[in-house]
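Propose amino acids for all 308 sites.
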C-alpha cells in the first residue's frame, strides 16, 4: 500500500543524517546499533503501517513517563498528583536538579524529578515497591496490547550509575515530596525506564492515547478520558524538554522522547506515531526521529494548530 512506501522513502531520506551520539551515561545504551531506524503509524481503528526496524527491541526510557503519569492520575486522582508534581514546562534538561522554590515540587512529570515522584504515586501509595513496578509494567503492557518485560542488563547498568537520579530523589525526600526510601523509588523508576518495547509497541501505546485511552487492538480501556487529556496536554508542553518550543512550532504534535532513541506522537482521534533511531541530539532527543516527525508533520499537515 501507499503508506509503507511513503515511510520507506522518508526513512531513506533521513538515512544520510549520521549526526548525534548514542546515550553513554547508561553504558549499556552505548552498545546499541546506531544505524537502526524505523517508523510506525497506528490508527485509532487498529490499522498499523510500518517501515524499517519496527520489531527491534530497545528500552522505553523516558517514553514511559507519560504512561506512568496516566497510571498515577488514574490510581491517585488529579488533586493528589498535582499537589506533588506540577504541569509547567521547565525549559530545562530532562535530568536537571530542578524543584519549585519553596515547595520542592517538580515542575512537570516529563523531567526526571517529576517522573521519579510520579512513579511513587502509581498504586495510590498502597503498594510495596516491587508490586508497584509490577503495576507499572502491566499498565505499560495494557497500553501496548501485549505483555512487556524489563531488560535486566540495561536496568543494572543505569542503577550502577544513577547518582544523579538518586540525588534528585534525596532532594525530593528532604522536601517531603517523597515519603519513602529514595533508593527504592529510583530503583522502581529505573526498572520502568528499562521496559523493552519496539517501535510497533510504541505506536500502539500512542494510538491508545489518541483513542481516548482505549487500546485500538485489544479494545481494553486502560485509563479514563480525562486522564488522557491531561497526559497529552503535558506531552504537548513538556514532552521534548528544553526543545519543547521548537518542537511545538516545527512539528506541533503532542510527543515524548527517550534516550534509547524512541519517539512517539499522538494525534487525538487520528493516529499514534512512533519512530526509533538511537543517535541523540544535545537535548537527548533522537536526531532522525525529530527529522522524521518534521517530515510527517509537513508532508501530511499534522500540526495541531493547522486547519486540516
Ligand atoms: N532512565 C533515563 C534517566 O533517568 C531516562 C532519560 C530519558 O529517556 N530522557 O536518565
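Proposal:
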Amino acid at each position: 500500500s501507499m503508506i509503507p512506501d511513503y515511510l520507506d522513502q522518508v526513512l531513506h531520506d533521513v538515512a544520510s543524517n549520521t549526526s548525534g551520539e548514542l546515550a553513554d551515561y547508561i553504558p549499556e545504551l552505548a552498545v546499541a546499533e546506531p544505524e537502526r531506524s524505523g517508523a510506525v503509524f497506528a490508527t485509532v481503528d487498529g490499522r498499523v503501517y510500518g517501515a524499517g526496524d519496527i520489531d527491534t527491541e530497545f528500552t522505553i526510557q523516558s517514553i514511559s513517563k507519560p504512561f506512568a503519569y496516566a497510571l498515577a492520575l488514574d490510581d491517585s486522582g488529579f488533586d493528589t498528583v498535582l499537589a506533588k508534581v506540577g504541569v509547567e514546562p521547565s525549559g530545562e534538561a530532562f535530568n536537571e536538579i530542578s524543584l519549585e522554590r519553596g515547595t520542592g515540587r517538580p515542575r512537570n512529570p516529563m523531567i526526571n524529578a517529576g517522573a521519579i515522584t510520579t512513579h511513587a504515586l502509581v498504586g495510590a501509595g498502597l503498594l510495596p515497591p516491587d508490586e508497584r513496578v509490577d503495576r507499572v509494567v502491566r499498565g505499560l503492557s495494557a497500553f501496548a496490547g501485549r505483555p512487556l518485560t524489563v531488560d535486566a542488563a540495561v536496568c543494572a547498568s543505569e542503577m550502577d550509575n544513577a547518582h544523579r537520579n538518586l540525588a534528585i530523589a534525596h532532594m525530593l525526600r528532604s522536601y517531603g515530596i517523597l515519603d519513602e526510601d529514595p533508593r527504592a523509588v529510583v530503583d522502581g523508576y529505573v526498572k520502568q525506564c528499562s521496559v523493552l518495547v519496539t517501535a510497533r509497541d510504541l505506536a500502539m501505546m500512542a494510538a491508545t492515547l489518541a483513542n481516548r485511552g482505549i487500546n485500538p487492538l485489544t479494545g481494553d480501556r486502560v485509563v479514563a478520558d480525562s486522564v488522557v487529556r491531561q497526559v497529552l496536554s503535558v506531552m504537548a508542553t513538556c514532552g521534548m524538554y528544553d526543545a519543547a518550543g521548537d518542537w511545538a512550532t516545527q512539528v506541533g504534535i503532542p510527543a515524548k522522547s527517550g534516550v534509547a532513541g524512541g519517539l512517539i506522537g499522538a494525534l487525538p482521534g487520528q493516529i499514534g506515531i512512533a519512530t526509533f533511531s538511537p543517535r541523540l541530539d544535545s537535548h537527548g532527543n533522537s536526531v532522525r526521529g525529530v527529522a522524521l516527525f518534521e517530515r510527517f508533520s509537513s508532508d501530511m499537515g499534522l500540526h495541531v494548530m493547522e486547519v486540516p
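The pocket of glutamine is lined by residues 61-62, 94-95, 112, 158, 165, 193, 258-259, 284 (CB under 6 Å). The beta strands are 38-43, 48-52, 58-59, 196-197, 255-257, 262-267, 271-276.
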